[in-house]
Amino acid sequence: MEHCVQAVVRSSLYALPTQPKDLQIDMRILLVEDDRAIGGAVRDHAGGNGHAVDWARTLAEAGEFVSVVTYELVLLDLHLPDGNGLDFLQALRDSANSVPIIVLTARDQISDRIAGLNAGADDYLVKPFNLDELSARMHAVARRYGQNTQPMLDLGPLTIAPAERIITRDDRTIDLTAREWAVLDRLLHRRGAIVSKAQIEDALYELGAEVESNTVEVYVSRLRKKLGSEIIATVRGVGYRVVEA
Q1: Among the listed residues 97, 85, 107, 72, the one whose alpha carbon sits nearest the alpha carbon of residue 32
Q2: 15: buried, middle or exposed (CB in 10 Å: 19+, 13-18, 0-12)?
Q3: At 190, which helix (H) or strand (E)?
Q4: Backbone angles phi and psi of 50, in degrees to 5
Q5: What is the pLDDT confidence band of residue 245, given thresholds at 50, 70 and 90?
Q6: Looking at the whole model, is its pTM more than 0.70?
Q7: pLDDT for residue 226 is more than 90
Q8: How far is 124 from 145, CA to CA, in rounded Å?
Q9: Domains and their CATH numbers in the chain
Q10: Where is 74: in which H helix or E strand?
């Protein structure tokens, strides 16, 4: 039985498959889609395969997300309530953002596909589509990029490879959980700037964390123990920032 997006939406009893663990990439994905049924199906499918998905319903929301989060992949609808997704795609490329982008759209004309690819899309999938095919295209695009869309960072005594999720200090590798990475990612994307507690909470919500009043403080404390107390500074009453060496 094929499980395209429309079939998944019609039947809540259909169980979405998960990829074998050796195919899981655990990407941070931005989904830009205004249709709640389609967006929900894609988000649940990607989440079931181990990815963290931020779902924007408008181009304005998508712009806010990319301003504070570094993504490994963007799934982009073209017809959004506040504009054309191609304009968003072009703006990303004009700003030298090389994040892989797969266009998801009902526009099936060859001219539309050519326009999307010429604007900088890496792949183009026409609705309705099979969710397993979407997963295969996501992994193919990730392999082409080698999951290396983010440069190596030097942060004091730390060397950080965000795409590979590798941190070393004094030739020792430091392991972080997915939620610890989510918090660190928010801080690294705005190095030197203050990141509010609410912005960090948003990253944890997307990973299914129970966010209580002291959740952010708990994860910041864990990061300081693993990375060094000097790496993250508290700006009382405002938020946190990573400290430049």
Answers
A1: 85
A2: exposed
A3: none
A4: 95, 5
A5: low
A6: no
A7: yes
A8: 16
A9: 5-145 (3.40.50.2300), 153-242 (1.10.10.10)
A10: strand 73-76
Q: Say which amino acid occupies 40.
A: G
Instruction: Enumerate the β-bridge partners of residue 168.
Output: 159, 173
Residue with tokens 């190596």, as numbered in its chain: 152
Contact 51, 74 (CB under 8 A): no
Structure tokens at 227: 């990375």
Beta-carbon neighbour count of residue 212 at 10 Å?
Answer: 10
- CA 69 from chain centre, in angstroms, equals 7
**Cα–Cα separations (whole angstroms), residue 46 to 23, 41, 126, 181, 223:** 12, 9, 18, 18, 27
179 and 219 in contact (C-beta within 8 Å)? yes
Question: For residue 69, which amino acid is it?
Answer: V
Cis peptide before 128 (omega within 30 of 0): yes
Strand partners, 172: 169
What is the number of residues in the chain?
A: 245
DSSP 23: G
Pairing, β 158-161 against β 153-155: antiparallel
What pLDDT digit, counting tens, does each position of 25-81 carry? 367 899 999 999 999 999 989 888 878 889 999 999 999 888 878 788 999 999 999
Lowest-pLDDT choice from 101-110, 150-159, 234-243: 150-159
pLDDT in tens, 201-223: 877 765 555 667 788 899 999 99
Write out pLDDT tens, residues 157-199. 899 887 667 899 988 999 988 788 888 888 887 777 888 888 8
Q: Whose CA is closest to 107, among 127, 137, 136?
A: 127
Q: Give me the half-sphere count of Cα atoms (radius 13 Å) on the Cβ side of residue 125.
A: 22
Task: Pull the structure tokens for residue 133.
Answer: 């095919």
